[in-house]
Design brief:
Elements (H helix, E strand, L loop, with lengths): L12 E4 L2 E4 L10 H5 L2 E3 L2 E4 L2 E2 L2 H14 L8 H14 L5 E9 L13 E8 L7 H6 L1 E10 L16 H12 L4 E6 L4 E4 L3 E6 L2 E5 L8 H12 L4 E4 L11 E6 L3 E8 L2 E2 L4 H14 L7
Parallel strand pairs: 8-9, 8-15, 12-13
Antiparallel strand pairs: 1-2, 1-7, 3-6, 4-5, 4-6, 6-7, 9-10, 11-12, 11-14, 14-15, 15-16
Helix pairs in contact: 2-3, 6-7
Length: 296
């Protein structure tokens, strides 16, 4: 069973700047630059049966996100991946969520941060389905977010940067307050973008459609599901999608390391069925991450 205590008060170990430290001692100073100016990047990973899925791809993206934010991590991809595996083993976890986070420290305060040092920590804990099993099986309900994904000339939109998730939190809170499970976000042009923490897919006449990720993350799970679809001979179309097109789609689902493949039964005023194609790709993904051969 998952630990229900607050995240600062748990038993276990966190990898912090090169060594394992007791969970409760993995702290930073109140004047850490990232706390004040959002100079932080992170990853979300899942381990299945003791193996972190696509670990090196996540480690590579973490380093790239830091570079896009203007600070270089002194740890290589191999070192970051090894540290993640060390955390999993130290906490005796097999099926878990893994969270690497890198940030600018407290060596300098103010907008400028040239003298700050980069830091890196990796934690892992048990975390089941992002949504309840009932909602995952029957499909979740999405509100339409009041905030939009920013243009790529206004923010480093290809970085998995903490600051870019501020509007996601605001949008998800509003959705939950209104009785929804999550929110569908449009981009600055008004095109369909993604949910607050997962990429979006749509099914129409046997083909898979997904928004072009030109102002939001091209997710690792997103690319994985696209590959799985192509292996089954399913046409995958990356393109601009406008809200008025949503009524023409038959199915919708979300993808992400935390969300995995999550069915959607409605987004705003648009309704979808949880159909065979969506269920097949969800099963294929589950088989892949758990090391099973997919059913034909």
């Amino acid at each position: 069973m998952a630990d229900e205590r607050t995240f600062d008060d748990r038993d276990g170990w966190i990898w912090f700047d090169g060594k394992l430290v007791p969970w409760r001692e993995a702290n930073v100073h109140i004047l850490t630059h990232a706390l004040h100016y959002a100079s932080s990047v992170f990853e979300g990973q899942r381990a299945y049966g003791g193996t972190i899925f696509k670990l090196d791809e996540h480690s590579q993206r973490l380093r790239k996100s830091a570079e896009l934010m203007g600070f270089a991590l002194p740890w290589s991809v191999e070192q970051i991946s090894a540290a993640a595996n060390e955390v999993l083993k130290a906490n005796n976890l097999s099926d878990a969520y893994v969270r690497p986070v890198a940030w600018r420290g407290s060596e300098q305060m103010g907008v400028s941060a040239q003298r700050t040092k980069p830091h890196l920590a990796i934690a892992a804990w048990e975390w089941g389905k992002y949504f309840s099993h009932e909602k995952a099986d029957n499909g979740i309900r999405l509100d339409i977010a009041p905030w939009r994904r920013p243009a790529p000339y206004t923010a480093p939109t290809q970085a998995k940067a903490a600051g870019l998730y501020m509007i996601c939190t605001l949008s998800k809170h509003q959705a939950e307050d209104r009785g929804y499970d999550d929110a569908l976000m449009f981009d600055w042009r008004g095109k369909v973008a993604e949910a607050t923490g997962a990429n979006a897919f749509f099914v129409k006449e046997g083909a898979l459609h997904t928004p072009t990720p030109d102002c939001f993350l091209d997710g690792i799970t997103r690319r994985t599901v696209m590959d799985l679809a192509r292996r089954r001979g399913i046409e995958v179309v990356e393109r601009s999608i406008w809200p008025e097109e949503l009524e023409s789609f038959e199915q919708m689902f979300l993808t992400g390391s935390a969300a995995e493949v999550t069915f959607v039964r409605s987004a705003g005023s648009w309704s979808f069925e949880v159909g065979d194609l969506s269920r097949q790709l969800a099963a294929d993904y589950d088989d892949l991450v758990n090391g099973r051969a997919p059913n034909s």
